[in-house]
Amino acid sequence: MPDCHHETAFFTGRVQGVGFRYSTLQVAKEFEVTGTVCNLPDGRVKLEAEGTKEEVSSFIAAVEERMHGYVRKVERISGPRAPQFQGFSIT
């Protein structure tokens, strides 16, 4: 992946126990991204994604749209870095 863009998104709201991670995994199949999604002890969900800037941005927007009734706030941190993931998984 020559143009590897990395983004970490933290989703706040009613995001655990509602199929958020599974839905994110399904959405990831529609985009050329790699990464991981996991629940955090503080009740948020952490999503890490890599790919082109456009794919990653579109992917995170699609997750937000799919789960819009549960998400109250999204914090995003992004930038370029060396690829660290293969495939997309729930951790």
Description:
Helix 1 (20-28) runs antiparallel to helix 2 (53-66). It contains two helices and five strands. The relative contact order is 0.35. Strand 2 (34-39) and strand 3 form a beta hairpin. The two termini are 23 Å apart. The protein is globular, with a radius of gyration of 12 Å. It has a single domain (5-90), classed as Alpha-Beta Plaits (2-Layer Sandwich). Helix content is 25%, strand content 38%. Strands 4-1-3-2-5 form a five-stranded mixed sheet, covered by helices on one side. By secondary structure, the protein is an alpha+beta fold. The chain has helices spanning 20-28, 53-66, and strands at residues 5-13, 34-39, 45-51, 71-80, 88-90.
What are the SSEs and their pairings?
Layout: E1 5-13, H1 20-28, E2 34-39, E3 45-51, H2 53-66, E4 71-80, E5 88-90
Parallel strand pairs: 2-5
Antiparallel strand pairs: 1-3, 1-4, 2-3
Helix pairs in contact: 1-2
Total number of strands = 5
Classified by CATH, the class is Alpha Beta
Biggest sheet details? 5 strands, mixed
Biggest sheet: strand arrangement: 4-1-3-2-5
Structural class: alpha+beta
Q: Bin the strand percentage.
A: 35-45%
Note poorly predicted spans. none
The fold-level CATH name is Alpha-Beta Plaits
Summarize the model shown.
With 91 residues, the protein is α+β, with helices and mostly antiparallel strands. It contains 2 helices and 5 strands; from the N terminus they run βαββαββ. The chain has a 5-stranded mixed beta sheet with strand order 4-1-3-2-5, covered by helices on one side.
